[in-house]
Design brief:
There is one protein chain. With 607 residues, the protein is an alpha+beta fold. It has a 29-stranded mixed beta sheet that branches. Strand 7 and strand 8 form a beta hairpin. The longest helix is centred in the C-terminal third of the chain and has 27 residues. The radius of gyration is 40 Å and the shape is elongated.
């Protein structure tokens, strides 16, 4: 017992002697010139320590410093790269003897960092790492790897009023990032500690403000880091932001396996504007290109409320044309991604087009994006798409396979393109490929083949039976006003195949049938100009009864040419009246021949 008392007394005496020695005979400010000279030799920069250094001793050992600045390279503006108002670091002395770190306080206040990139490409970081930096780091790394700690206890960490100014002289832009506060509460291994931060950024086209709080825990063997209940609220404002302001909120939990270099994130809730989502993300960052696996479930998405409002037609016509040539989008970043994404979305509305129940599988690897599956409900029907974008070349190439089944085509066309042209239950399939993602080039370079059939539908904007009846009446001299009937032609089926090349869809076998008439022919639709050019032949099956015609029509079974021109928005229909006239003359000639035949037979006694 006496031995222990004597030992403790000896330790305390030694500590007191060291404290007296350091206080009386050892002034840390004596080393300031040596520190300044060492920094000058290593980096060529000027280090200034304006305030006096001060020690703290038992029960903690630490140092307080302030008024510290490190210069940028010569000729840079601002002159200072780093300025620190005050920094405090205090470590409990006694626990160090048992390989335990107990930090009483770590704090940093009023730090300003100016990172400049000049027009010639030089930056504030140039020259900071000398030739000896790697050599000097090796022994330290070996020492730290061999050292083992029994415990770490932190009374608290506080970083306040830290500002980073990123200055690009070539672009004449300055981005300001401000960490208003970061705090870590009382921390110990295997125990959760509270964390909180408040951050803001000012960039040329937007401002960002964010704050968050949660708790973290580090395992005793330093292999597992867990963050729970992390809630981050962010506001982004700017002219390029949807509605000039976007508010987001996220609640998540994270686990990081530091030894295996793996990270998993469980997102309990994510909201952005009116969009809500949840999901999981896994990252393996031990590989050269991190491997990312994500699975998200998203609610309703209304992109029309997020996209900028379109200008009026008048304003668009008055706006000067943009003479800047379009360039291919830079997809080189896809080469640095290894991603697998599963996504379900309750509904998506874009450009007034509504879809529901999205299910999508996407993979990105080695510069190739694979959409292996996309299923969605589309206007009482189904959409199934698979596609691939290859970005390994400067000009991306793509291919796709798209099928639509059981879709109500009229509301789809009205919502998607404001076109009231066609109605019915549509089935559609198309396979295509092409190069270039510039909109105009995409239309020109797309090569595709497909087929369509539409059942129990109608053509809107034209009443073909009425057109035939009206033209026939006028040829007979009946100039009475036309009866007003709905401009619609009913059909039981409309089928055809098509090919797409150089922006023009060619349809060689359009066929339409109904109880009243048959229609067949071919034509083209120009996707670049939206021009239509169809040459068709229509024939009446028997009569026009039911659409205002007589029980038996004289033109039944006679082919009548029909032309469709104009545009997608305003199609124009025209009958070939010359053919109708020829048919009428043929009908009158046939009647005259019959009369002549009857007359001759009577004269010959009925033979």
């Amino acid at each position: 017992m006496k031995f222990i008392k004597w030992l403790l007394a000896l330790v305390v005496t030694l500590i007191l002697l060291v404290t007296v020695y350091l206080t009386v005979f050892f002034d840390p400010n004596d080393f300031k010139p040596e520190i300044v000279d060492a920094v000058k030799k290593q980096t060529g920069r000027e280090l200034v320590i304006a305030d006096d250094l001060s020690w703290t001793f038992f029960p903690v050992i630490g140092i307080n410093l302030g008024g510290v600045s490190l210069s940028n390279p010569e000729g840079f503006t601002p002159k200072a790269m780093l300025e620190v108002n005050k920094a405090v670091a205090e470590v409990a002395l006694m626990p160090l003897f048992s390989q335990q770190i107990e930090i009483a306080e770590l704090s940093l206040d009023g730090a300003t960092i100016n990172l400049v990139t000049r027009k010639n490409g030089t930056s504030s970081f140039d020259g900071l790492s000398g030739d000896n930096s790697k050599k000097a780091a090796t022994p330290a790394a070996e020492t730290s790897s061999n050292a083992k700690l029994n415990d770490i206890n932190i009374g608290g960490i506080s970083i306040t009023n830290t500002q980073i100014n990123m200055i690009d002289e070539a672009k004449k832009q300055t981005q300001v990032f401000t960490l208003k506060s970061f705090t870590l509460g009382e921390f110990a291994l295997e125990q959760f500690a509270p964390i909180a931060f408040e951050f803001s950024a000012t960039m040329p086209d937007m401002t960002v403000s964010s704050e968050g709080k949660g708790e973290l825990k580090l395992s005793r063997d330093f292999t597992q880091l867990v963050v729970n209940g992390l809630k981050i609220d962010t506001v982004v404002e700017g002219e390029s932001i949807p509605n000039k302001k976007l508010e987001t909120s996220i609640n998540l939990a994270t686990q990081i396996a530091l030894d295996k270099q793996q990270l998993s994130v469980d997102i309990a809730q994510l909201t952005a504007a009116s969009i809500t989502a949840a999901g999981k993300v896994g990252v393996n960052y031990a590989t050269k290109i991190p491997q990312i696996n994500a699975d998200f479930q998203v609610g309703d998405i209304d992109l029309d409320t997020l996209l900028p409002k379109t200008e009026t037609a008048a304003a668009t016509e008055q706006a000067p044309a943009d003479s800047t040539p379009a360039v291919e989008p830079d997809l080189s970043a896809l080469k640095q991604l290894d991603v697998k994404l599963k996504l379900t979305v309750k509904s998506i509305k874009v450009a007034n087009l509504s879809t529901q129940n999205w299910l999508m599988d996407v993979g990105i690897k080695n510069g190739v994006l694979d959409l292996t599956k996309l299923n969605a409900d589309l206007y009482q029907g189904k959409l199934l798409v698979s596609a691939q974008v290859d970005a390994r070349q400067a000009v991306a190439s793509y291919q796709f396979d798209k099928k639509v089944t059981g879709v109500q085509i009229r509301p789809l066309l009205k919502d998607a393109a404001d076109v009231d042209l066609l109605a019915g239950t549509a089935n559609f399939d198309v396979k295509g490929k092409g190069r270039s993602l510039i909109p105009e080039q995409l239309k020109k370079n797309l090569l595709a083949n497909g087929h369509f059939d539409i059942n129990d539908g109608a053509l809107y904007g034209v009443n073909i039976p009425q057109m035939i009846r009206s033209a026939q009446a006028k040829l007979k001299g009946d100039l009475s006003p036309e009866t007003k009937e709905e401009r619609k032609t009913d059909f039981s089926s409309l089928t055809g195949s098509f090919s797409l090349d150089n922006g023009v869809a060619t349809n060689p076998d359009l066929a339409m049938s109904s109880p009243l008439l048959r229609l067949a022919g071919k034509g083209t639709a120009n996707l670049l100009t939206e021009a239509l050019d169809y040459r068709l032949t229509t024939s009446l099956v028997s009569s026009l009864k039911g659409q205002g015609g007589s029980d038996k029509d004289a033109l039944a079974g006679i082919d009548i040419p029909l032309a469709i021109t104009g545009t997608f928005q305003k199609p124009e229909y025209a009958l070939d009246t010359k053919a109708l006239l020829n048919n009428q003359l043929k009908e009158e000639t046939d009647k005259a021949k019959e009369k002549l035949k009857d007359s001759l037979l009577k004269k010959l006694g009925g033979f």
